[in-house]
Amino acid sequence: MEGTSKILRRSVHTFLRNYQYFTTISASLALPFSVLFLISQAFFIPSSSSPSLLLPQLLRNHFQALFRAAGFPTSSGFFTILSLKLSETVTSSIFTLPLTTTFLLIAKSSVIRLIAQVKANPYLPYSLPPDLLSAYTPLLRTYVYGYLVILSANATTFFLLFLGFNCLEGFQLSAPEHSLSSPVVAAIVYSVIIANTFIICNLALVLSGIEKHGGSLAIIKAYLMMRGRRATALSVAVIGNFALAATEALFRYRVVAPYHASGSFSLGILLEGCYIAYLYSVLIVLDTIVTCTFLRSCQVEDLINCEDKFYCQIQILEATGGPYDNSLKNTDPLLNSES
To answer: 10 Å Cβ neighbour count for 142?
Structure first.
């Protein structure tokens, strides 16, 4: 398996090689989603006039009540941060759902199909791929299935945490030393499960765009492809998510915070907000390229492993005088091409 640095270098090379296409067509397609998503961040900073009318605050109160009823230690910092992030994520998902299922998926489809098109013929002109819309439908199906998988992963994780905390309470292990370590263990378990789920769903999106077959089958293939490569996938995903999170923080600091301070937008703030939204779109495109490169690396490694196993079987059968050596040779496309 290729290392993280090599995957990132190949992705940057692909991005710079097709720089005009990715920064104009693909980034422009993702721009409406980026603008709406970053605007939704304004709802996550309470204003002094009406803090109780914020939808994330209402959802946060409901999550905290749910955690309290389940017996979770809501006084710990982990569940306080978790309820806040869950409320922000749910609000942002609802707010950006129309553009997520249209502009964002079309932008990802334009990146995936161009990479597949350039791989087949490097000398084609850089324009919208003719099979762009045909790849959009599998992406949409995979996104819906991935959304359900993420919900199921959250529900399963909360159920495991519920069992864990209730077992600790039942065995009277709620001493101060255990009460300090249990939220840390809960944070690790939740982070690992949700991070792997997001990576599998993101990889399934790219896989469905390449193969043009979406749905649950793409998610299963992505899960099988992740076996033995989770460390590399996690390191690549952390870098991409850190860049996106830094851009979101920059938008809050440079656009949302001045708006709440002055109560109005100036021309400079609007222009800076548009530039940050465009930068966010470029990062989305680059993250899709990195996922395509990682998927290609996994496919090449699987192909090499299959060929190695195939030739090992042929050598063993020839050495032992097995009766199936000729049939195995005939099934090898490389041997058939040589003959």
So the answer is: 27
